[in-house]
Amino acid sequence: MKFLLFGTGNMANQVMEGILNLKRNIEIIGVIDNDETKHGGKFFQYTIAGPERIKDYAYDYICILLGKNYADVYTQLVYGYHIQKDKIVDRFFLLKVIMTEKYRESEDRDIQDTISFWQKNNLSFFNQFEYVPARYEKVFWDMENNMPFILYERKRLYYPRNYDGFFVKDDELYVVSYRDMEQHMKSPHRYLTDSICFEEGDIVVDAGAREGDFALPYIEKIKKLYLIECDSGWVKALQMTYKDYKDKVIIVPKMLSDKVTENSTTLMETLGNEKVTFIKMDIEGAETKALSVSGKLFKNNNIKCAICSYHKKNDKDDIEKILKKFGYRCSESKGYVVFVADPDIFKEADFRRGIIYAQKDCPNDLAFNLSESVDQ
Fold first, then answer.
1. Would you tell me which of 25, 165, 193, 279 could form a disulfide with 205, CB atoms 3.0–4.6 Å apart?
2. 100: closest CA among 87, 83, 85, 117?
3. Longest Cα pair distance anywhere in the chain, in angstroms?
4. Is the pLDDT at 374 greater than 50, yes or no?
């Protein structure tokens, strides 16, 4: 399969550094850029040409390796150079081709199911084998407190005033929600299972709370809730969302890590001797750090855990190793995440498990495969 690449910036560098070692039967036949000062120069081993040279190449696809200017270049190619729309692809299409080739002989059923799914669908973050569309949520405005919110589970879920994901449609303000996709039963990013679930009287930690939608539907049955979130905009939104539950909700405006500093905290520092029963953790790759200094907390309690394991290449193994040392049994969510936000994703081109589930005393739950999860 022959690709003509358009773009020579940071994104193109990340892509090229990865695919040179992984391309197999993928052939890069040339590089195009709009910047005339680059024409004739080198991008890796390729001579950079202007778009007027596109007609000289025999390609299967033109892959646009641009971020914010993608739409402009797409328009330029379609209406200026009359390139067929189905010949123009983005970096995720290229990544899909690379990963399909890399894992074609894999015996992992989830990987083969994903590759089959990709034959008729785009690569995505979640890749569950059932299409779940994003949803438009209407945004309302709390004029008294000057804060935007949506209605979620019949409750107000607030957003920062400067949130950049709002858009206008038919003279109404909306935000795109991926919640249904992220927490679909077949999603590799699903936090809850039949046994890793909320129960009456739970003491819950939501580390990396963001908008706080994880615990909000269950707030009535939760005894106490710790929301750990370091983004000041989301902290203000959380304060508004949970303002009627101040008797049971503690908001910790710091990042969770392995050290106590002005801006960071640890589970032990935050919780002390609290009898925690549930921890959800999605803290952008700091999961292993936070867990590594929390042995006393985990050993002294039987905590239901849902820990994100995709931010770094080896997170799954590192997180399981720590939790097993604490006496916990581990399993994985179904399917795989493709963590496209990783700047090294083209270098690794790897599938990653989304969530590690863990607890000490595990009931009979299909989400757990103890024969594979427990050290022999």
1. 279
2. 117
3. 70
4. no
